[in-house]
What does this fold into?
Amino acid sequence: MAGMYSTHMHTPRLVDMKERVADFWKDEATVSNPRKHTLQPIVTGTSVLGIKCVDGVVIAADTLGSYGSLARFRDISRLMKVNASTIVGGFGDYADFQFIMKLLKQQTIDDEVIGDGVYRDAASIHNWLRCVMYNRRSRMNPLWNTVVVAGRDYSGKPYLGYVDKIGVSFEGNSVATGFGSYIAQPMMRKAMEENPNMTVQQAKEVMARCLKVLFYRDCRSLIDSKLEWLQKRRIVFRNRFLLKQTGLLEQILPVMSNLIN
Amino acid sequence: MRNRKGLILKTADEMLSWKSRALLFLKARSTGTTICGVIFNEGVVLGADTRATGGSIVCDLNCEKIHYIADNIYCCGAGTAADTEFTTRMVESKMQLLKLRTGREGRVISALRMLKQYLFRYQGYISAALVLGGVDVTGPALYTVYPHGSTDKLPYVTMGSGSLAAMSVFEDNYKVGMNEEEAKKMVRDAIRAGIVNDLGSGSNVDITVIK
It folds into this structure.
């Protein structure tokens, strides 16, 4: 049993991992080919919504990857848990978001490997992503995404941030990307005005209403959505197919048939 | 070719390139607006904000965007202020003449027909997006008219730059057969959402109830 913890077994492995990590990050630093620069998003995801509550944060996105006007991938996850204190959601090109997810996963692995028990918090991830996005935009090869970064910062306070494909970044009590900023943001702002000390449970209900209205009015959206939340005490992440479960689907269908008649 | 003054466009390509350049000069000034309407059990409620913008400047803090067409028909206008004003005044006078000729109270559908045929004739160059509502012998009616001349008949409508913010309020709260107080509150909340969240809309909320 003692042999498992002997240092001569760890040191070679650590050196190997360092080399592999360096290779991973080397790709970002090479000279790019202008012909391979992102000119337009191909498979896209629509709005991501986020609300910051007194006891945590909630983000939501639907599960559709649109190929132009074709609903091509109807069950993709545009939300990702980065580590115990951060969740991110991606809007825009899905391939670029998968690349961002890969980068974030490697960040978490790097934190693990260092082994000091400190992991990057949501604010650090947000800041790092801002640098990445701005750097890519400055090289005229953007990651065609808007990322919502949610979670806790080191002091334990809830954190909610937004990073754009051109490096615009800010924090807020409620954030929305794409179509959501026109349709859902007014609803979320009103809800927060009426109830400044919103809990995660109340925020989830507000999100469900916003996702319902987005399904009505955004062509590139789906009824199935996922929602992830981070609550202060319980570091638990769950996602669910919201609208079918909360019974809002039954509410929507009669209204729609009324409009047709 | 003799030396003529002025612009001579010989090929189709030249004409097209001049057309696109001319459009750059003639950028239409929009009011930047939130207007909406909803049908309730006795009639129609129309709402509008009161800000008129010229580019990024607020020209008029308290302008009237709900125009009179007839005693029982009113029209909210978004788009170029001059276009909505003159279009609705023209339809108002035509409706008055129709009323004198037929001896009957005008119908909303007549105003709609006049508006859409007028706007279609100008192929979208008259930038007037209207919400037309009223009550006539056939009951309450609510229509939208787009600058190119297409129309929609719907129970609740929003137009203008703040239309998505207002529509989010409608989609969240609309139900069939509301009473007057509920409808007025919903319209007020919708215009308020436009005023708060859209930079092209602001100032006050005007509401007209027709029943």
User: Anything to note?
Assistant: Chain B touches chain A through 15 residues (CB under 8 Å).
